[in-house]
Specification:
The protein has 3 domains: 224 residues, BirA Bifunctional Protein, domain 2; 59 residues, Herpes Virus-1 (2-Layer Sandwich); 86 residues, Anticodon-binding domain (Rossmann fold, 3-Layer(aba) Sandwich), CATH 3.40.50. 34% of the residues lie in helices and 27% in strands. A hairpin with a 6-residue loop joins strand 14 and strand 15. The longest helix is centred in the first third of the chain and has 20 residues. It binds adenosine-5'-triphosphate.
Amino acid sequence: MRPSSSLNLSFRSTINRMNNANDTMEKIVSLAKRRGFIYQGSDVYGGLAGTWDYGPLGVALKRNIMNLWWQHFVDSRDDMYGVDAAILMNQKVWQASGHVDTFVDPLCEDTVNHRRFRTDHILKDNGVNPDGMTMEQMDAAVVENDIKSPDGNPLSKSRTFNMMFMTHVGATNDESSVSYLRPETAQGIFTNFKNVVDSFYPDLPFGIAQQGKAFRNEIAPRDFIFRSREFEQMEIEYFVHPEAWEQAFDELLESTHEFLESLGLSPDHIHELDVPAEDRAHYSKKTIDIEYDYPIGREELMGIAYRTDFDLGNIQRVSKKSMEYQVKGSNERFVPHVIEPSFGVERALMAVLSESYREDEQNGEKRVYLTLPKHLAPIKFAVSPLLKNKPELVEKARQVYSALKKKYGAVMWDDNGNIGKRYRRQDEIGTPKCIVIDFQTLEDGTVTVRDRDTTEQQRVNIDEISL
Ligand code: ATP
């Protein structure tokens, strides 16, 4: 379906770009809006680029993904501790971590209309691989390849642009009150390392996990929710003995693949990129990016990095507080090293939608459906009376609906239009099963259970309905 004419500019430009890149992505973006998964942020006022609002189905899908992650990496293990740190942190956190000085992207400008772009993105869009290039090399590549802005004008030289959103805390507006919306959740974990050790005194290796909002003033947010200015991360800092990092890295990488499989992502669409030294953050001794074959192309879904003792070392240096871990029953003390698996919720969600989007034909009619894994589907069952003007059917259907709702929560009542239309609507939002109550139900207590993927219908006793 085409986007409606009420779409604001940023939403429209997202769609236009994708239209060229891939029709499937456009269809997913439209479905997400139309069916109440994801809307442009501040839509009613013309939008705010790089922000997205989750509708009733989107919030359910997002929470299901986040809960699955928590279950997989925290609840099912005995070496993980959860935290939920404040988004606003003391500015020293971002000075010590290096974000104030180095959390920058290369920015260039259209010299005529002054639109701004990320130089590495401009190169990539023009078929030049910017990986490993310094800013000067990127500028040289722009000149060498005679690359112009998307509006056809010459581009300026690049400068660095810090992506952190700065703010002031409290009633004074001076240097001392500066703070930032966190650009990653990781630092809220590192700053709580000592607290968790003092409260729980865990054996090494152990991890601290956090989920929550992160903010980056991306120069050019694009590709739907893939590159947003406000998004959510799910991160783990896994603390290890400096000599035991490789084993922990491999174990967390394997566990990551298991998690991605539980999201329903096909292993064929997932690729490991062993990031070469020149492209890694300077403190990282090894980084593997997990890339996914999105409709927009193969792009980073998450990354797992060996960060050495860089972060705890910085905190120790700036705060003057020891970040050493003392091995129980021995005098051995050291600053632990860290393996960091870092997931973006939006990128996981976009992969799930991309993987599950399907079109087929049923009885000569085009059908759109989402093959969402049952445990992720925002609605598990839709319950309908065959006819909504037959009180006896409606009453029975209400009973079935209430019983299922009590057990599964995410159950929808749907009595609009004919049964075929109801099935189409539920298929489009990925509801695994539709239950229909008809006259036979009143006689023998069986209902029709219709399967989303096969469209097969079976008669099942009410007590035996299961997901
Ligand atoms: P990219 O190179 O795509 O900008 P990154 O390497 O800077 O990403 P990290 O800093 O490693 O990303 O962040 C960890 C994860 O957070 C990423 O793998 C991604 O899933 C997610 N993420 C980062 N930036 C964004 C964004 N602007 N919008 C949505 N998710 C993001």
